[in-house]
Amino acid sequence: MLGIFLIIASCFIWAIDTLFRYPLLKTGISATHIVFFEHLFLLLIFFPTFYRAPLKFFKARPSHYLSFLVIGVFGSALATLAFTSAFMLINPSVVILLQKLQPLVAIVMAHLVVGERFNRQFFLWAAICLLGSGLIAFQDMVQGISALDFSVNFFADKALKGYGLALLAVIGWGASTVFGKKLSLGGFEEKEIMAGRYTLGLITLAPFALFDPTSFDGSFVVWRTILIMALLTGVISMYLYYQGLKRISARLCALLELSFPFAAVLVNWIFLKIPVTSLQLLGGLLLLLGSTIIQLKKY
Question: Domains of the chain: which residue ranges?
Fold first, then answer.
């Protein structure tokens, strides 16, 4: 049960991050610059890890290097950029809807990559988790879909690019969960996984940040906000996440990541006084119930 609560706690901290991230984006600073400098701060924080365990990295197996590439290049860098770019190309509700495919990607990869096995009962309770996730986001998705302009060509080049980027983010984050679990099973500690993740993520993001046409406001307030976000999501949240991931299966972790929208709803209620609907509460309860049964019964 501890693993479940650690993943949910990490999602709650991710949700708190939005209170800083969205206002910063509205100032005109590009998402690329924000994510790049977050990774820069995080590399400075975790760089001593390479000195404490150098042989562990140098003597790692090729499969470990592949895992680091997946979580660093694809999960930490490219998936984040793809997800942000998709929002600018297609309706955000469609992006969120496509993101619901992420657990399915992780479940399939968990079987193929780390050999996780599951039975019919798992799929039943996983479906309940997905239903709960859908109820949490139902109101926002309905409002977004009702605002769609159906006179627009949904198969235009711009739209297809948006779908592709959204799916790339889904695959990248789903794979990142599974390969993070693989590293944990391979004996790597949380700080070591995070150090490798942020190093490769920073290297991947560097060309995007260098050629980003938007200007960067390097004021004290901006740097302070980016540092706060790096500490919240990059240090505290990710540490809790990997602590939880080593205690539960990758497939269950992927389902628990769907609690992020519910965590965002609670954060909005606590800090912004936006009321929580009964449908969202029901969705959160179903998600918690389904994931708890899967863990207790070892489905």
Answer: 2-297
